[in-house]
Model the fold of this input.
Amino acid sequence: MAAIRSSEQRTPVWWTVFCGALAAGAGLLVAGLWTRAGTWVADRSSGLEGPAVLAVAIFMTGLVWMIVVALLGVAFPYAVATALLHVLLLLPLAYEDDVILDRRGERVTTTVSDVRAIEEPKTGHTGHNCRIRLPDGTEREVAGPGCDGDTRTGDRLTVHWDPRGEAAPKLEVQVTAEQQMWLVRVAAAGFLLVGARVGVHVARR
Done:
């Protein structure tokens, strides 16, 4: 009798699959919305204020979802994973300029018009900024390999340059478009798995 009663109370498989699939879809939707939001901000913001606001929004959303997942009674690691996945979606935004330069940037040779030494108060380390003239006639400052204490006015530097002016010129690209997409894929897969786990848990309650 006990076995029969246990069988009757068991959650139907179709209901478990349905809730799991629904929640997994919701997880992918969250990842997609955040990725789209990051692209929208990067396309329309000329300064740091846009990405900063988005960073705070993603952090707060991750915190709220972590609490929600925990309150649903899902195992604690899934709550932590939810917050970490939101943080993972921040990384592509932080390197958006690098990705833009990798996708459509051009390698151009420029002339150094000025070299400025900058001392960091906390570390005492001295860095250098080089002012260069771009093909469109504008002048910008760059820092990185090739711009150091040995660089002099009139030297030639090869930089990554975006003809549309949506990304600041750089001497090197740290994150490529392919690397950015891998971060997005991992985050999306993580949201799918966490969402499915939440759905299964809710279905069996």
Q: What stands out?
A: Confidence is low (pLDDT under 50) at residues 1-8. The helical segments are 2-9, 13-44, 49-71, 76-88, 90-94, 96-104, 177-203.
